[in-house]
């Protein structure tokens, strides 16, 4: 029964997180509409809304609370993680959501089960689930960026052959390509327009995307700006190399898919089996949560499952 309550609480908290992220993106779009209205780009009949909905007020409270935690030592690192994941939140705001979700889920489970251990366990699961969500967002965004990089370099090379400068080519990428690569180049163009040098802007983008392929591109661009040369030809060569590496990664991904699926099944199976048994026969699995020896056994099993999953992923994760 505890597993079912834990699963429901986790899904509920994640749903709240998704809704808050959606409202945050809506507030940004509303701000953009207001700016277009006051700059004269929007039809005068379409007036911006001045009244704030409840969700926007909650986001204002979240922002204000995040400012109180801005002096945390690792806040900048969390901000960087949010940027890498493409989540429109500051690191301190994410910390507040993390703490609130863990507290609410623990309180719900404790009220239902009257067991402090169950509440703490659910809080740990919720925190781990939300952090895994961020890590998955980062990995998927990095993979999507790498898959777009070959076409991006080809477009930059063709634009430079057509007479565009490198800055104009980057602006073209920001306008014409799809996220996440367009968002990153928009960030670069915004930094440059605010006075940052091209070298610093590209280096910051390299740190955000975390792609070794793009590191090669940044190195080539910086060397070309110092010593000269045909940048379009260099980008064509790098684009061909990246396309070959992507093709090889896909082949390896196909060959190792069985091992990856085995790791997922072995990682989920104990928890799914425990939830199933707790539903059909709660008394059979209850000693695992009420007896001290059973709680120790659960902790050891969870640690072993996590270690096994990590080992399997390390085996099938082949760097190219």
Detailed description of the structure:
The protein is mainly α and 320 residues long. It is 83% helix and 0% strand. It has helices spanning 2-39, 54-68, 75-85, 91-113, 116-161, 166-176, 181-193, 198-209, 212-227, 231-255, 257-280, 282-285, 287-290, 292-316. Helix 1 packs parallel to helix 5 (116-161) and helix 6 packs across helix 7. The protein starts with a helix and ends with a helix. Residues 41-49 have low confidence and may be disordered.
How many beta-strand segments?
0
| SSE arrangement, N to C | HHHHHHHHHHHHHH
Largest sheet: none
Strand fraction: under 5%
Uncertain stretches of 5 or more adjacent residues: 41-49
User: What value does the Rg take, in angstroms?
Assistant: 24 Å
Helix content percent band: over 70%
In round numbers, the mean pLDDT is: 77
Class based on secondary structure composition and strand pairing: mainly alpha
Based on CA inertia axes, which overall geometry fits? Answer: elongated
Q: How many H/I helical runs?
A: 14
Distance between the termini: 45 Å
């Amino acid at each position: 029964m505890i597993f079912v309550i834990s699963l429901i609480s986790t899904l509920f908290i994640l749903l709240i997180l998704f809704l808050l992220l959606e409202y945050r993106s809506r507030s940004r779009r509303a701000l953009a509409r207001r700016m277009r209205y006051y700059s004269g780009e929007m039809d005068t009949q379409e007036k911006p809304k001045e009244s704030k909905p409840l969700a926007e007020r909650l986001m204002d409270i979240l922002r204000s609370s995040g400012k109180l935690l801005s002096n945390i030592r690792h806040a900048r690192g969390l901000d960087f993680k949010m940027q890498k994941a493409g989540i429109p939140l500051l690191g301190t705001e994410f910390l507040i959501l993390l703490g609130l979700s863990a507290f609410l889920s623990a309180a719900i489970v404790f009220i239902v089960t009257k067991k402090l251990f169950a509440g703490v366990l659910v809080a740990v699961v919720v925190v781990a689930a939300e952090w895994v969500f961020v890590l998955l967002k980062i990995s998927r965004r990095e993979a999507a960026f790498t898959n777009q990089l070959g076409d991006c370099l080809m477009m930059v090379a063709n634009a430079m052959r057509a007479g565009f400068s490198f800055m104009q080519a980057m602006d073209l990428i920001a306008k014409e390509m799809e996220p996440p690569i367009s968002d990153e180049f928009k960030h670069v163009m915004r930094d440059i327009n605010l006075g940052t040098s091209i070298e610093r802007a590209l280096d910051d983008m390299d740190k955000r995307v975390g792609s070794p392929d793009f590191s090669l591109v940044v190195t080539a661009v910086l060397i070309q700006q110092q010593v000269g040369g045909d940048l379009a030809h260099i980008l064509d060569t790098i684009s061909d190399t990246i396309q070959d590496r992507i093709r090889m990664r896909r082949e390896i991904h196909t060959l190792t898919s069985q091992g990856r699926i085995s790791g997922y099944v072995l990682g989920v199976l104990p928890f799914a089996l425990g939830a199933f048994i707790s539903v059909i026969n709660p008394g059979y699995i209850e000693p695992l949560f009420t007896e001290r020896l059973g709680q120790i056994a659960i902790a050891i099993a969870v640690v072993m499952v996590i270690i096994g999953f990590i080992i399997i992923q390390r085996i099938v994760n082949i760097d190219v």
